[in-house]
Protein: Bromodomain-containing protein 8
Amino acid sequence: EEEMEMKEDCGEGEGPYLSEVEPAASESEDGYGPPSQRYTADSLASSPISVTLIRTLSLFGFRSTCGEDQEAVQAQKIWKKAIMLVWRAAANHRYASVFLQPVSDDIAPGYHSIVHRPMDLSAIKKNIESGVIRTTAEFQRDIMLMFQNAIMYNSSDHDVYHMALEMQRDVLERPTDLGFKDTYRKDIGFSTELLDESVF
Structure:
C-alpha cells in the first residue's frame, strides 16, 4: 500500500520501481547485456533513467523516487550533450571520412565475411540519439570496435590500417587534444583504461 501511495504521488509515467532483491544485470562478453538486461532497459521506455543508474541502485537495494528520476533525466541529457561533442570531434577528424558510413563489400571485397560486427560513425550517432548507447563505456566500446574492424580487415601496409591507428589514438588515447578536457573528466567520465582491456 505504501508503494502504491508513493507511485501516485509521483504521477503517471515515472517508470517502475526497483525491487530491493533484484540482482544487478551482468554484461555478456560482447559488451551488450543479456536478455534480462535488455528487458530492463526496454521496460523503462517511459522513463529515460539510465541503465547505469539502475545497476547502481539495484546493487545497493535502493528504490527510485521522483526526485531521483528527475536527476537521472537531467544527468542523461547532460551526458548525451557531452558525448555528442566528442562524437562531433571524431567526425571532424581528418580521417573521419573513412569511418562515417558503413563499409560495403563493393568497396572492401569480403568485408562482411571477415568483420561480423560492422560499426561506423553514423551508426554510433544513431545509437546515441535513440538511446541504444547510454553510457560512456558503451560509446568507447563501439568506437574501439569501429577502429579494430579496420585494423583487422586491412593489412599493416594499407593506408586505412594506419588511419585507424592514428584516429583511435587521437580520439581515445589523447582526448584532451580534442579540446574537451573538462567534458571528458566531469560530464562523461571518459577513460583510457579500456584501451588496455580486451573488449572484443
About this structure: The chain has nine helices and no strands. Confidence is low (pLDDT under 50) at residues 1-51, 56-64, 177-185, 192-200. The chain has two domains: 2-64, 77-196. Residues 2-64 form one domain.
